[in-house]
Design brief:
two-stranded antiparallel sheet, alpha+beta, 28% helix, 111 residues, globular, 7 strands, 5 helices, single chain
């Protein structure tokens, strides 16, 4: 689902504090993914954001084009009502994030 659908599905998600667990995770295809935990719902989710396309103004200047919200996808990975339980499962996450297909490390740890 895209990010707007995800937040619209449960109003508590949009209003809640979120704790970020890194923005440079990668999936099997190498797509950059962010990992966040929503305090009010206990949900851990991965948000994949494709590389924003570059545009040209016709005279040689490049700029980053806006990414449509439906291109930003969310995968709900699990629910951890107690943050300390998640912290224990993700111990060492900062080092693991740098590896190839590092999101698989997260999936394995929380399974």
């Amino acid at each position: 689902m895209n990010i707007e659908e995800f937040y619209d599905e449960d109003p508590k998600r949009r209003a809640s504090e979120e704790i970020e667990y890194g923005t440079d995770w990668t999936d099997a295809s190498g797509v950059r993914t962010e990992l966040s935990w929503i305090a009010d719902t206990g949900e851990l989710y991965a948000m994949a954001e494709p590389v924003e396309p570059l545009g040209s103004d016709g005279i040689g200047d490049l700029y980053v084009q806006n990414m449509p919200t439906d291109a930003v996808t969310v995968e709900l990975l699990g629910t951890f009502p107690v943050r300390e339980d998640l912290e224990q499962k993700l111990e060492g996450w900062a080092a693991a994030m740098a590896g190839a297909n590092s999101l698989e490390w997260v999936r394995t740890r929380i399974a």
